[in-house]
Amino acid sequence: MTDQETAQWLFTRDQFLILTHIRPDGDTIGCAAALCLGLRSLGKTAYVLENVEATSLFTPYLEGLMPPTDYTPETVVAVDIAVASLIPENAASYLRRRIDLTIDHHPSQEFFARETCLDPSRAACGEIIYRILVQLGPISQAVALPLYVAVSTDTGCFVYGNTTAHTHEVACALMKTGISIQAVNKRHFRAKSLKRLRLESQLVEGMELLEEGKTVIMSLSLPMLASVGATEEDIDDISAFAGQLEGVMVAVTLRELEPDVWKLSLRTDPADLTASGTCALLGGGGHAAAAGATMEGSLSQVKAAVLSAIDVIRRGG
Fold first, then answer.
1. DSSP state of 23
2. Cα–Cα nearest to 217, from 310, 135, 92
3. Is 304 helix (H, G, I), strand (E, B) or coil?
4. CA dist 142 to 26, 157, 186, 270, 290, Å?
5. pTM of the predicted model, to two decimals?
6. pLDDT digits (tens, 9 = 90+) for 82-115
7. 183 in the same domain as 198
């Protein structure tokens, strides 16, 4: 469906429950909060399903939006979720009966819902949620704040290559509602905990440079996390760190989720390597410049598999 069709679809329904993806980031949380508040402004009943993996960086945006224990939704909506495997365990029952709508911006969308609103040209799902909500009424400050979080975090505060003129237009419209962005920008883009800085030091110490510095591999193991007592909040968006090294075109970050289970985050220059195509070979997906996958094996095995997939894509596979 188009955003216009989706707006009309939402307007004719009620009793909403909104789902976010596992290891939630600012885009999925911001979209869920904004959509929930926007629907409530229309007089509809709407809640966001609790995500136990949400960190304290993002949980403040969900205050007052969780459903009561006896709530039974009529309409289930997933935001910023490309594949069914990213749906949290506590939402599995909704997946089995099929989710009513998914709103997403990932080209790897697998169309697991009855209806889909998909626009891969948008840097953040928040841009799509904005286009939907603005057709249903004025955007309030309460709605604008989490939408700004969604759009800004998925673009690295508007510096990633996915940022477009439309992204800036949406951010401008949100700022015109009167929200204060200074605190948001400091919280998500400037302030770092001491634990995070110590982890970054370890990442730099152990990084591997290949192809004359054009490819970098950084690995974040469970012992490294334990050595500084880091939490999920301390490592938010740590996958962007490797790409900050000057001259790097392919940044590989491998984070150990549990023993011998690794989360791959791949950031690339799409003119050199397509991230989504590479990660698709490894069972994942994403965007042309940023994608990911979950892999099993020792660190050396996972590294070898990633480098093999990169080679396949570069050879036109």
1. S
2. 310
3. helix
4. 16, 20, 19, 36, 30
5. 0.86
6. 999 999 999 988 887 889 999 999 998 999 999 9
7. no
